[in-house]
Amino acid sequence: MRIIKYVDIMSAKNEGRKKIIISPGIMVSPYARETARSFGIDIVEYSRNKREEKNMRKLFIAGNWKMNKTNSDTVKLLSDLKPRVSDAGEVDIMVAPPYTSLTLAAEILSGSNIMLGAQNMHHEESGAYTGEITADMLTEAGCSWVIIGHSERRKYFGCTDELVNKKLKKALQKGLNPIVCVGEQLEDREGGNTFEVLRRQVTKGLEGITDLVTIAYEPVWAIGTGKTASPEQADDAHKFIRELLADIYSPEDAEKIRILYGGSVKPGNVAELMAKENVDGGLIGGASLVAETFSQVVKF
User: Fold this and answer.
1) Residue 34 a catalytic site member
2) How far apart are CA 26 and CA 290, in angstroms?
């Protein structure tokens, strides 16, 4: 069981935060509680009931395994994960293993409450594209979801906004549910260009799209670094993205779209992030590679 300690309070103080939101059941040491009181920091327990009372969007926790896990690892991880989250009916759950494990994962997850996704796809039907994979291959392997435009695909493999748009159109044509990733680099945030980058990525990526799709906001500087955008920073970015979606679709449709946060989400910060009005779940990287940790994120 996680315990909020003095160091957590001091971290919140240094970040200028006046509130710490914790999951039900998390303990707070007496010294930490007294320190928080002395600094005027409130410790509040997160309530999913309040979220449901506001008719907010159903939470969605997706695990992106990236280039991790062999077939034997996949069997072990998913076999361990399934019973841990079998009672998490109030949250949609998805995992995206490597391509080599998709068919195996589909067999293991059959009949469970965990959906299967892929980490990328090509926009063409078939052809001489060595090392690529098509939407038909993914659906036949058992996928119902696909991640499109992840920051690592943009950075290392030349995935442009135009390619994101082509992949998105193909995914929708083939019946796959896409998670479209957007987010700024560190130099963009430090230069005050975060919203400019998000506007370009969202508008170009969704050009000509009428279907409602899931969005994942990834502050690239927070991926795999241990750094996390503050809940306020995340909510501000999500709110801006929702405003863009209102222009692309309609204000009513924008309120239906789930916007996930993807940037070093872990058991210790998930409750505070999910408490924000415009944060509807998480695209989880490292924390999804261990069943116990991922289940703690799902059932925070």
Assistant:
1) no
2) 20
